[in-house]
Design a protein that fits this description.
Layout (H helix, E strand, L loop, with lengths): L1 H11 L6 E5 L9 E8 L4 E6 L11 E5 L4 E5 L4 H8 L10 E8 L2 E6 L14 E5 L18 H4 L5 E9 L4 E11 L28 E5 L8 E6 L2 E3 L7 H14 L3 E10 L2 E9 L5 E8 L4
Antiparallel strand pairs: 1-2, 1-8, 2-3, 4-5, 5-6, 6-7, 7-8, 9-10, 9-16, 10-11, 11-12, 12-13, 13-14, 14-15, 15-16
């Protein structure tokens, strides 16, 4: 098993941009959540990036041990990985912080949670096939560009009536909706019930306190809908601040048929701004494309 572990470590650091783990959520059947894992086998640190929010400044760690018949990959408590496990199926189908390593090849690491659920549940959860992060997934790089606390970014976006066109590749359909981004006077007010915050949900961690902004217009039936500023993404994850806030963001996610939109690119020409977004299927392939146009000359 020592050789298997050595080969695993060698493979873990071979991916220049890290490894991707696609997890299913209770929010959408076709769109999966990407988790990017960058391993450092010398320090046993792992940098974790996902669309739900911005990672905190605390180092996360992993370790590899000898399990029964296979190596085990274990993430330490307080990381984004253990948070997703503790929150449950609304955030992901992760069922443990310990994983049996089933197989390793040059371009794939196959892992399976040790448990399928709670402490006394049977062994074996979903099988995840980690693949190397595509080079064009620049949203997962170290710079956060889609940032609604940055006036330079929100210029010509905030309180501007534009359009969002969504392309659904699975059904080959396109929908265009009137769309207005709107900043909040206090983007931190909803943190009191942030589902990823330890102050609200004991046992979680790994994320910085969330920031929020609003979406309104035809796409929300003109309901002012609070959404989360994810990491270079719009996250339509439920916000249990109160019933109306929660129901509105869930309804928007259902309308858009995705629980997030990853920020892909922007084009600025004077006052005219265009933004590109996307979301992924279980294999990390683009399943939703979205194009925002502020319609300014």
């Amino acid at each position: 098993m020592d050789k298997i572990i050595a080969d695993l470590k060698k493979t873990m650091v071979s991916a220049e941009h890290g490894w991707v783990m696609m997890v299913k959520t209770g929010l959408n059947a076709d769109v999966y959540t990407p988790i990017v894992l960058e391993f450092d086998t010398l320090s046993n640190k792992v940098h974790i990036t996902t669309v739900y929010g911005v990672k905190d400044e605390v180092d996360d760690f992993f370790r590899i041990t000898k399990g029964t018949g296979s190596p085990q990959l274990i993430f330490t408590t307080g990381s984004i990985m253990t948070t997703l496990y503790r929150i449950g199926t609304q955030a992901s189908d992760i069922t443990d912080h310990m994983y049996n390593v089933r197989s390793v090849s040059e371009n794939e690491i196959e892992i399976q949670p040790y448990r399928s659920g709670k402490v006394y549940a049977k062994e074996g959860g979903e099988i995840y096939k980690l693949f190397k992060r595509p080079a064009d997934w620049t949203w997962a790089d170290s710079t956060q560009i889609f940032d609604w606390t940055n006036p330079e970014f929100t210029n010509n976006l905030d309180n501007v009536e534009g359009e969002m066109t969504l392309e659904y590749l699975k059904t080959n359909t396109t929908v265009t909706k009137n769309w207005r981004f709107w900043s909040l006077p206090n983007p931190t007010i909803y943190r009191i019930r942030d589902p990823f915050s330890v102050s609200y949900n004991i046992g979680t961690g790994g994320f910085k306190p969330m920031d929020y902004f609003r979406v309104t217009g035809e796409v929300t039936n003109n309901v002012s809908t609070v959404v989360t500023n994810g990491y270079n993404a719009i996250s339509f994850y439920p916000i249990p601040y109160n019933t109306s806030t929660n129901q509105a963001v869930i309804a928007l996610g259902n309308t858009l048929k995705t629980h997030y939109l990853v920020f892909k690119n922007q084009t600025r020409n004077g006052r005219h701004v265009k933004l590109e977004f996307e979301a992924y299927d279980k294999d990390g392939k683009v399943i939703v494309k979205a194009f925002y146009d502020n319609k300014r000359n």
